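Justification of resources, computational component.

The compute hours requested in this renewal are based largely on the per-chain cost of generating structure records like the one below. Each record pairs the submitted sequence with a full structure-token output. That output is archived, and it is also reused by downstream analysis tasks.
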Amino acid sequence: MTDLPSFANLLEEYLAHNDRSPIWLAAELDINPETVVGWLSGNEYPENEETINQILEALEITDRLEQDNLRRTGARTAATEISRSHQTNIYGPVYGPVHTGTGDININPLSLTALKEWLDGIFHWSEAPEHMRSSWAGMVVWSMTAVTNRLTPQRWITFMAAVLLWAGAAWLGAPLLQWPLADMQSRFWAAIQYAAASLIIPLIVGSISTADNQPLFTLKTGQERRLLWFLKVTGALVGFNLFYTLFLGLSLGLYYLTLSTLPEAAWWVLLLIPLIFAYIVARRIPADRYKMFNGELRAHDADRLFFAVFLLFGPFLSGFIYFFYWFLAERVTGYVFLLIIMGIALWEQKKQTPEASSDRKTILAIGLILPLAALFLYLFFSQQFSDILLSDPEQQLFTLLAFAYILGPVIVWITLAIRNKPILTLKGVVGLLGITAVLNFILLWDMTIGRWVTLIVLVLWGTVGRKYTRPYLYVHPSFIMMLTGIGVSYYLVAETAVPLWVNFFGFAVLTILLIYWAYQKGDLST
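The structure output for this chain reads:
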């Protein structure tokens, strides 16, 4: 005798046969659409036989065998749910009356009774026949049977796919977490592997995941199906790369403290977490967007930004670690990261409670004091700069000028972010990067032609293009002047005989003037 299909499978089959959607059935029964989704997922069942009869009537199921199958599966599972809802749950320590009035009894969670109840929920020992309970061997056989009966082919396939994904994520992602990475070839392949994992794993997770409440979505056209895929992959990219970056930070922190990190096997286990969160976010993003837009599956503007950022995030992070390993391997960098976290905390405090500190104090702290502290940590405690203070004064002055090239743009940008907030959109940033890449290619091809083309582009943008680009990309002119000042100062150092102290003094005066200009409130509409 073959087992009946589940209620969820039968209902899905009848809906497809009648070309009806879960939303249509919910409207016919005057119930919440999420209830129908619960039926189709197998997590919920009709409350009573009357509901099943309404389903039969709505779907016009007249065949007696089909009616009996739906009633039998629905009634059987409903009865199971009713029996479970009246069971006594055992948990928690005793405080006050033992009985809570809800059918739950609070006892010590470490008691043997609580452990037995928990195991019984897994192995269903209370349902074992008498002859199985007669020996421990019989109970072992019963326990194995209870577990294997739940392992349907679909669940086996899902389990094996999850194991393969975990193995792939761990194999590709673990090497970059094994600090230190002093060997260049090992570091190169570790960076390549993570760059591949940051793209391949989220793409697979997003492609095979089923979104929460997916039966509610209308997926009749290719565009709608592509939109669902886009939202799931975006969620997987964010979830995987975000949590992998947290583990990379943990690995760096352990390295700065102990000059070593966790064993590779430990990272293999921990890399389950980015994979799990990739799956969770991939499931939730489409459902959240469906609710956000009142029953219509649409993408938010931020989704496209997050997709672009996290699609490039892994390759960019891998390249940064490979090329700037010398910087990250410095233990001083660990203290600098703490200063960066402090600056982020101050910035968030300013955003949430603007009255907590004045604009000047915030600019002074985030734009000047914290960057200066970071620069002096490198200057006095970094192995890379250990010989500078012992060298000639000109070398020291050149180092100070280089630090000014870093400090100037930082404080001007922080000032603008507080007083004259820049306008940065995905379309504007991508357009700027594209134009910059084309100009750099022309400059590499022919320096003379590249300079003329660059000059023409700047003139056209200054005379005509500014009013068209402002809604997408706008930065106060003081920051552009700051970058121009750095270029001019560097040219004077490399190509002229202007004394370094004159160059440094002039750049310092220019920076102060530009900070004052950036601090003045302006009207962006003009």
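The CA atoms of residues 206 and 233 lie 4 Å apart. The mean pLDDT is 82.
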